Amino acid sequence: MALQIFPDISKKTTVSDGTSYAYISVPAADANKPTFLLLHGFPSSSYDWRRIVPKLKEDGYGIIAPDLLGYGDSDKPEEVEAYALKRMADHVKEIVQIEGLKQVIGVGHDWGSGLLSATALAHREIFSGLVFLAVGYISPGPFDIDKLNAITEQVLGTPANGYMKFFIEDSAASVIEANLASFTSLVYPTVPEVWKTDMGPVGAAKRWVTSGKVTAPPPWLSQEELDTHSRILQKGGYTGPLNWYKSAARGVNQEYNSKFTTDESKSLDIPSLLVTATYDGACPPQFQKPNTEKYLRNLRTEQFDCGHWIPLEKADELVKLLEKFSNGI
Known about the structure:
Keywords: Hydrolase
Number of strands: 8
Order of helices and strands: HEEEHEHEHEHHHHHHHHHEHEHH
Radius of gyration: 18 Å
Family: Belongs to the AB hydrolase superfamily. Epoxide hydrolase family.
Mean pLDDT: 97
Largest sheet: 8 strands, mixed
Pfam family, one: Abhydrolase_1
Helix content: 40-55%
Distance between the termini: 31 Å
CATH architecture of the largest domain: 3-Layer(aba) Sandwich
Protein name: AB hydrolase-1 domain-containing protein
CATH topology of the largest domain: Rossmann fold
Domain AB hydrolase-1: 34-314
Structural class: alpha/beta
């Protein structure tokens, strides 16, 4: 919720197809400092970068951090087709152009990594660097939830992405909105191991949410922050955020993805960084690295000992890493 949470450094714009986006906008202190484009994940908003933005700003870096489609102060279309990755990638490029920038360093977390992947493939000229947090590079191809769960169960002994089956149900938004405290408690569990038992197995996430179970937030998240997060998501509901999953699962991206027929067409030479999280039950590191290493030709990798929420759990370490990465480009 850029306009509400960061009013002094935020603005709103409308891209060429009429879609409106709110975003944090901080100009670089001088021409030698790059601008970071921060793309949040699910279920979030630009508020997820609250521990990153002040540090980068203080060090003179430029920042663009949108409330992505369906979130915060940006538009929230209800149509699943509106969440096609290529369409949103075009929006991201326009925002960068509106800010008068030729290139940025893209940073994606969770679904933001998926959007960063699509934007880099469609508009690679606007990126001097790419950083993927928790979720690695996602190459064009089918989004098969059953296959994801089968593969992770074979390796881990239990599925890692069963929650996606719940998220693509027609009733998912209304179920979550009726049990918001419980859902938020699952999204930010007291300990990351909860995701292995109550997010990954098929049916587990829905059981948790509908049971009304609420647990204490993790030690790195205050109740005030949790309440702010909930208010942001309550504003627009969960229809838009869940449409990111539904559009992928229903093949909305299939026609565009089919244009990438070779490994070469799916590959990028842009300097890239993958940062995985040791205790991420939904996005285990061993499943993020192979695809990323295959298609990103100029890649380095790092791993933090934390759960999924790297920008919140390891903010200081992440800022240092981003600045080091930018200096090496």
